[in-house]
Amino acid sequence: MPRTPAPHHPLATAAKRGARLIADELRTPSRSTAPLLGRAGKRWLRMLPYTIVFGFVATLLPVTATVLIQDYRLGGALAGALATAQTAPLLLAVTRPLQAWWIVFTADFAGALALMGAAGTAGRSWPWTPMVVVGYLLLMACLGLREPRRKLVAVWLTTGAAGLLFELVPRDRGDGVHLLLFVLSGVVLVVTGALRERGDAQRRLVVQETISEAERAQRTLLEERARIARELHDVVAHHMSVITVQADSAPYRIEGLPDAARDEFGSIAASARESLTEMRRLLSVLRSDGTEGERAPQPGLDRVQQLVEATVRAGVPAEVSLAADLGEVPQTVDLSAYRIVQEALANVVRHAPGAATRVSVTSDDGHLTVLVVNGPAGERTSPLETTGTGHGLVGMRERVRLTGGTLDTGPLPDGGFRVAARLPLTTQPTESAEDPS
């Protein structure tokens, strides 16, 4: 009869699986080879890891060789080789700590084997010498600042396993240095690993905040453009309705029109009605879900006085100066100027309550000039918002671009703020608009 294979013990299976995981972790070093503290802004901080490691190596190498020769009575050549192998690779730990750990750990293990036959080992630390403990803890700090948590656990368990292996050797030594190294290395790995994870979390938070701010700015821009499109619908729809009425009534108002002219006017009226239909479809897409269309006419400069009065009631001393000879202002410019004044006054209420504010609207050289200037915030009031994203200026810039004008905004020397918009009273292509802000 064929023999039935004995079932594997669960503990043995788990041990094999754990050993395989540890081996996998120790075989794959971090992809990053950037020096520790390489992202520091100051040069002395970037050089600090090299200085510390070089200082340790310069101290430990001769001390290790001397102690191995004089105290442990090891041969000079072997002592020099072990001292170099146990300390010099620490210089590699600044950029490649796991590779440095492999070299140092192998050298420490070999040194422990060599000390088993040394004449001066009795009564001294074994398997790890005091210099090995100091260098190893420095190496653990470099590992903790670079490698992930699972790899640190693998290194720590390997360290404990090596100490336990030497503890099983029947010799008259019981100073417990292997247990001391196991505990201290664990503490160092936990502390430095926590510092590394905290730094990584802070960097990810900064990146996420930057991305969120960019997305917020883009969303604000798109929302403002959709709002402008909804508002301009009424303006354009009015002109298209006038074209439709004029084209439909032309054959009745003008006598003696030839048939070709009547057909042309009919075609114009049909195209205008089709354009109105397409505009309404576009508006239904731009309008948010559940938002009903506005039925009130779009505001203009004739309502700027009401804006200023509302601002005064909000606790901001404001005054307005409207030129009497503004002339004929296109509807688009009229609406844009009103919205610019509205947003500027809203910013004063939010960020500089109590600040004296002056609104001025003038017309010269074929341009409409809108100026809103406020002084510093009042002493007895505090801003409703102490920080701002500047997104309130997005709408101003978009409306200025729409009309082909220019916008200039910025703080004043006395602590106030100025918004100056210059809008053309004649139609200009928006591609040529300049925005110095």
Please supply descriptive tags for the structure shown above.
single chain; 437 residues; alpha+beta; Heat Shock Protein 90; 3 domains; 5-stranded mixed beta sheet; 59% helix; 8% strand; disordered C terminus
Molecular structure report:
By secondary structure, this protein is of the alpha+beta class. It folds into 3 domains: 164 residues, no CATH class; 64 residues; 132 residues, Heat Shock Protein 90 (2-Layer Sandwich). 59% of the residues lie in helices and 8% in strands. The chain contains 11 helices and 5 strands. It has a 5-stranded mixed β-sheet with strand order 1-2-3-5-4, with helices on one face. Strand 2 and strand 3 form a beta hairpin. Helix 2 runs antiparallel to helix 5, helix 4 packs antiparallel against helix 5 and helix 5 packs parallel to helix 7. The longest helix has 77 residues. The chain is elongated.
